[in-house]
Design goal:
49% helix; alpha+beta; 5-stranded antiparallel β-sheet
């Protein structure tokens, strides 16, 4: 069977890059429906990602089709991607927090200076 709702089209380049860093070799797709074919030592079958021709009611394609046997690889990618996004958000939150502290310090200094001027 195949899974048609887990690998978003917008993740294609990230998924491809992740496969390469994980030791996969990207090959030329075969046929009209394959969009990605990758092999890895120790695996009997290549990882295949398909693009279906028909979409839901003529809408834009949102997800690629992945064979069930390859879903473990897709799930590992999504898990790693979630960790990456979380870490980026955490770093960004630290930057925002640091910036906020600087602004608060500046405001406190201005208030203290204005209190000195009033006294």
């Amino acid at each position: 069977m195949a899974n048609r709702h887990t690998l978003p089209v917008i993740y294609y380049e990230d998924f491809k890059a992740w496969l390469v860093t994980d030791g996969w070799q990207i090959q030329e797709p075969k046929g009209d429906y394959e969009v990605l074919r990758a092999t890895k030592n120790g695996r009997k079958h290549p990882l295949l990602v398909y693009c279906r021709n028909a979409t839901n009611g003529g809408k834009e394609l949102v997800h690629y089709t992945v064979l069930d046997r390859d879903m473990g690889v897709v799930m590992a990618f999504l898990k790693d991607d979630t960790k990456r996004v979380y870490n980026e958000m955490k770093e960004r939150a630290e930057e925002i927090r640091s910036y906020g502290c600087k602004i608060i310090d500046e405001i406190c200094k201005e208030v203290q200076e204005s209190e000195k001027d009033d006294a």
